[in-house]
Amino acid sequence: MPDTREFKWKQCLVVRADIRMSCGKKCAQTAHAAIGAYEKADKVARKAWLDEGQKKVVLKVQSERELYELKTIAERAGIPTSIIQDAGMTEIPPGTVTALGLGPARAEDLDRITGDLSLL
Question: Directed axis angle between helix 107-114 and helix 64-76, to 10°?
């Protein structure tokens, strides 16, 4: 049975698709991005998002530049952000920028910024 709740809050996690990473590595990078952005959110946004069920959407971009452009747009809109750089201990070189966490924030605000991106 599909869930028909309307979520007013969410988090968007954006991963670079131009880097070869295993599925597990992508999962780890998005988890880092989720925690990093959550920690930068204010108490009101964190509580509302937690109470509502912690909706997360994982999206992709094709370049590091796109990731930074999204980060800048989100910051200008007052949305918490977190850029993730890998430590380089497993699959990719140290310092590689892999993911971006946005929010939690109002879904409508995130949709204006990420609405054209494809799901991972």
Answer: 140
Pairwise CA distance, residues 12 & 26, whole Å: 14
Domains, the chain, ordered by start: 9-119 (3.40.1490.10)
Q: Beta strand 56-61 with 9-16: parallel, antiparallel or unpaired?
A: parallel
Q: How far apart are CA 49 and CA 29, in angstroms?
A: 21
pTM (2 decimals)?
0.94
Query: 118-119 and 56-61 as β-strands: parallel, antiparallel, unpaired?
Result: antiparallel
- Edge-to-edge strand order for the sheet containing 9-16? 81-85, 97-106, 9-16, 56-61, 118-119
Distance CA 109, CA 45 (A): 12
Contact 100, 58 (CB under 8 A): no
Mean pLDDT by 10 residues, the chain (120 residues): 80 97 97 98 97 97 98 98 95 97 98 97
